[in-house]
Predict the structure.
Amino acid sequence: MNTEVTIGPAEFEQALGIAPGTLDARTTELLHSAKLTYARIDAAGQSALEAETMQRIDEGFTVVGEHRKEIWRDAWQEQLERFEASGYDLTALNPKFVDGSTILRWQGQYVLSLSNQFELRVMEILRDVLFRTYLSDVDRFFEFGSGSAFNVAAYAKLFPEVPACALDWAPAAVRIAELLRERLGMKVRGERFDFFAPSKDLVLGPGAGVFTMCALEQTGDRFGAFLDYLLQQRPRRVVHVEPTVELYDPTTRHDQLAIEYHTRRKYLVGLLPALKKLAADDRINLVYSRRLRFGSRFHECFSIHVWEPKE
Ligand SMILES: C[S@@+](CC[C@H](N)C(=O)[O-])C[C@H]1O[C@@H](n2cnc3c(N)ncnc32)[C@H](O)[C@@H]1O
């Protein structure tokens, strides 16, 4: 039996929850050239991976919070130096934490990725779809918790005329964004920002588009100050790509492990319920909310929530 599978338009449409045959030509082409191939893993293999994953979780991971500020400062400083040493090659901005494993989570199973940089490629294609679907009609783009600024650079390549701003609490993350403008001529700037204490001086404007990716995850249950800031700023649209513990299925072992990992690291809790409550109170439109059912071995960063403040 051939256990190799290539992710084509049909699989991607299913993951995104869109009707068969409706994926646009550009995404279809991106999938085609990425040749995303993985091997299925049988039931015995799934069980062995579940046991091994639980053991790794038990061995311990660091917990998120203020004390990790230095870790991020050093990580982005290293990335900044790599970017400079590469002569400002955008691929030098790809963060090390993407593609840490060849075992990935896909549609409720562990799979073995066979193609090069599988996780990064899926992430790039997803990002491209989201930018074009939800952030093409904004007059300014802001990514909060922007890290290496590789998302901001990708946005600036797609929409070079739209001013883009990269915000992060790590100084080197801000510096990378500045270099995108100084060295590569992109309409990008960087600014310091702390999710725990958003500056009221940062004005987004009514036509703004906001993006977060695997960044609010770092705030645990303390995303409230940022959400309040967004509600007060009233940008046009907000797109979150964040691990969403509420969307795992606690009745499956596969998801129990992701919940365990997420909970032990004290990742994001409560964002989706808060958005649903705001929608029920008629304060926002929750335009799209979907778990892609794709992630690294331990959890899934790729749940997407798109919302708009209401008039
Ligand atoms: C996992 S990285 C994701 C970076 C980027 N969005 C990406 O997709 O690669 C998390 C980012 O959140 C930033 N971060 C964590 N806590 C923060 C806080 N309280 N305020 C601002 N940025 C924060 C970190 O510095 C880091 O850049």
